[in-house]
Request: fold
Amino acid sequence: MNPNQKHASIQQCRTRKYASCTDSYDFFNLLTGRELFEVVEQLLPEHRERTFPPTETLSMFLAQAMHADRSCQNIVNQSAIARLTGGLPSISTNTGAYCKARQRLPVEIISELVCFTGKQSSDKALEQWKWRGRPVKLIDGTTTTMPDTPENQEVFPQQSAQEPGLGFPICRIVGVICLGSG
Reply:
């Protein structure tokens, strides 16, 4: 076998394997599916057609968050490969456009989708998953430090043990999980 053919064959196998692990199009299909389409449509900001429209950006962001390699470069590479294998025009693998598109996503769209899908899952939970016929909620909280910007300093408090103006703002996070449906 010609060495060039061997390398081309190896590269094609790697590309197929890489593309098969892409979750963003699965998320895109869920977001534009029957159950979520109306919710997503109501929450989408006005936008012009770009390389990464809001629904595609959101689906890529979800896939990025669930992938072992959570880098922007990885998800942009996956998207570029999926486009090529799907017969769509190629895109740049520079992460700038994706990062800007992700910044344009309204927080409300993610928050509403979390609430909507959580309610859907909880409503479909089997009766035997409940405790004495009642849904059980698990509540947990944590904190994380935020970048030390004037905007974050204004919104998020610092740790009480630190001198004012020193240290990083603290973001408090609380999660509520349905025991029956997760």
